[in-house]
Amino acid sequence: MLKSLVSAFVLFGSILFLSTSFHWKNVDFNPTGTYEYDHGDDGDGIVKVQKISSNKIKVSIFVVGGGPSHNMGEFMEVITIKNGVAKYKSGDCALKFIFNSKAVKVVQTGWNCGFGMGVVADGYYLKTSSKVPDMENAY
């Protein structure tokens, strides 16, 4: 019980910190790197980003949904970034990437993003590396 309360407090504190720290402060910010989240049986994901130019980034996502099916989804596109926010829209699918120096918040609108049944990319992905990632594969 105590472990569950502590875990919930840490998770809530992390979300609160991340959600209040997504403000663009540095126009020279380079979002290049690898961002990850892991929610155990509730799914995990990885976002890889490579800056192409001052206003273009290549983004790949690989997400695995929660059990029991653990369906997967992947996405890779070159998209425009402005003031730390990159947006993708195609048909019913819209993905918004909000960057800061420590994480990226992904907001998905619509269900037709080509991911497996019940899989969404929504979430806070913590930056685990600032190195240029391998962009050949989404994962």
Under CATH, the topology can be stated as Lipocalin
Low-confidence runs: 1-20, 22-26
Which bin fits the share of residues in helices?
A: 10-25%
Number of strands: 8
Distance from N terminus to C terminus (CA atoms, Å) equals 35 Å
How large a portion of the residues is in β-strands, by DSSP E? over 45%
Counted up, domains total 1
Name the helix and strand elements from N-terminus to C-terminus, one letter apiece. Answer: HEEEEEEEE
State the name of the first-level CATH class: Mainly Beta
The radius of gyration over CA amounts to 15 Å
- What is the second-level CATH architecture? Beta Barrel
Strand order of the largest sheet: 1-2-3-4-5-6-7-8
Question: What can be said about the biggest beta sheet?
Answer: 8 strands, antiparallel, barrel
Task: Note the overall shape.
Answer: globular
Mean pLDDT: 83
Number of helices: 1
Overall structural class, as computed from helix and strand content, comes to mainly beta
Structure report:
This protein is mostly beta strands and 139 residues long. It has one domain: Lipocalin. The chain contains 1 helix and 8 strands, in the order αββββββββ. The chain has an 8-stranded antiparallel beta barrel. A hairpin with a 3-residue loop joins strand 6 and strand 7 (103-109). The radius of gyration is 15 Å and the shape is globular.
